[in-house]
């Protein structure tokens, strides 16, 4: 019996040594807490929720060394609600990401599957809403019009991400429509780049989605994940972050253009008649984070958004002011307590819009305040 055990142990040790360069990692974030909404359809509400700030998710990622500096890689990532155990992203098992590909230390990575676009990869981390993995749900720009909070992912995607060349990184993505005779019917392409000097980080990104309002449900974007359903959506922008000691200060500008706007999807509604003409948004964000101690940080952002929207009654020019402040206290490297306050005011310019903090039910007035408190655990 002892001999059999020793032989098995030696065999296992040899196998581990032979595959020392291979790995599979289980990881995730669980965010649970309470929120107070000052005006949810005319009423205030206190609710228990999952992912008030960071979307709860878990996943596997793996790497197999193929030699010569090349490795096979994969990632399977699932979003869920910790409050009721259900899957997010339309009930997908791996709704955050699911891809496989090759990575080379010199040339970069080429992956295939459901993936984040280049605006999310390069520009979003410079914004306040994109500084947390999974997004910061209470700090997204109105309706997450620029997708910096990662409201939608790209299906059928082929993506290239470069290696780090002296602080410069760049990448591109193409999401196929998968429709015979309709190559551009619900397709996506995007580009992005960043440059890190150590104290300054610059980034820019571009995304275009064609015919996202079509009936092609097997295309690049799942329609139920999008706030806007339009014949064409363009997102582009740039940003800079400055790091000095314990402080980080950033500015991000984005613009979203919607052509042939057909309808508004999901919980947020613009409340104006869609006539197929379109809308555009320009967002200007200033953000900052300061680490007072290794255990305590305070951060926030101010965003001014201006828009032009066509409706049956003519053009409207609503304006949004958003302020978010978040305090974090780390009980350990993996567990923290947070409090976040987000306030939004809208000058609706006759459009009939109400204030609408991301992830919440819209206000019946021009103002809305949301307070979230909770706990996050990383594993």
UniProtKB/TrEMBL annotation:
It holds the Pfam family Porin_4. It is found in: Cell outer membrane. Its main location: membrane. Residues 1-20 form the signal peptide. This is Porin. Homotrimer. SUPFAM superfamilies: Porins. Keywords: Cell outer membrane, Ion transport, Membrane, Porin, Signal, Transmembrane, Transmembrane beta strand, Transport. InterPro entries: Gram-neg_bact_OMP, Gram_neg_porin_domain, Porin_dom_sf, Porin_Gram-ve, Porin_Neis. CDD domains: gram_neg_porins. It is a multi-pass membrane protein. It comes from the Bacteria. The keyword Signal applies. Residues 9-342 form the Porin domain.
């Amino acid at each position: 019996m002892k001999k059999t055990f020793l032989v098995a142990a030696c065999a296992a040790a040899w196998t581990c040594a032979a595959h020392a360069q291979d790995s599979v990692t289980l990881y995730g974030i669980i965010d649970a807490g309470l929120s107070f909404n000052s005006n949810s359809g005319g009423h205030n509400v206190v609710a228990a929720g999952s992912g008030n700030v960071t979307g709860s998710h878990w996943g596997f990622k793996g790497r197999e060394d193929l030699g010569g500096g090349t490795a096979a890689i994969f990632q399977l990532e699932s979003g869920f609600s910790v409050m009721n155990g259900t899957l997010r992203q339309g009930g997908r098992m791996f709704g955050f990401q699911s891809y496989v590909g090759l990575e080379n230390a010199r040339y970069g990575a080429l992956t295939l599957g459901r993936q984040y676009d280049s605006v999310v990869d390069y520009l979003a981390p410079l914004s306040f809403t994109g500084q947390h993995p999974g997004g910061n749900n209470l700090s997204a720009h109105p309706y997450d019009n620029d997708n910096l909070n990662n409201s939608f992912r790209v299906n059928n995607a082929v993506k290239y991400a470069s290696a780090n060349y002296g602080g410069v990184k760049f990448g591109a993505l193409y999401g196929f429509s998968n429709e015979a005779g309709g190559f551009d019917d619900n397709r996506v392409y995007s580009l992005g780049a960043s440059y890190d000097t150590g104290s300054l980080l610059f980034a820019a990104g571009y995304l275009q989605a064609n015919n996202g309002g079509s009936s092609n449900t097997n295309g690049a974007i799942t329609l139920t994940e999008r706030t806007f359903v339009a014949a064409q959506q363009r997102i582009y922008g740039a940003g800079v972050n400055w790091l000095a000691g314990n402080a980080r200060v950033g500015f991000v500008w984005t613009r979203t253009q919607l052509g042939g706007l057909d309808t508004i999807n999901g919980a947020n509604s613009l409340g104006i008649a869609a006539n197929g003409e379109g809308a555009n948004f320009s967002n200007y964000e200033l953000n900052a984070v300061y680490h007072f101690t290794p255990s305590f940080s305070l951060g926030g952002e101010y965003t001014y958004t201006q828009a032009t929207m066509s409706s049956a009654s003519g053009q409207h020019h609503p304006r949004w002011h958003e302020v978010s402040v978040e305090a974090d206290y780390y009980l350990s490297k993996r567990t923290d307590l947070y409090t976040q306050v987000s306030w939004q005011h809208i000058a609706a310019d006759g459009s009939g819009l109400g204030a609408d903090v991301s992830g919440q039910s819209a206000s019946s007035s021009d103002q809305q305040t949301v307070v979230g408190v909770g706990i996050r655990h990383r594993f």
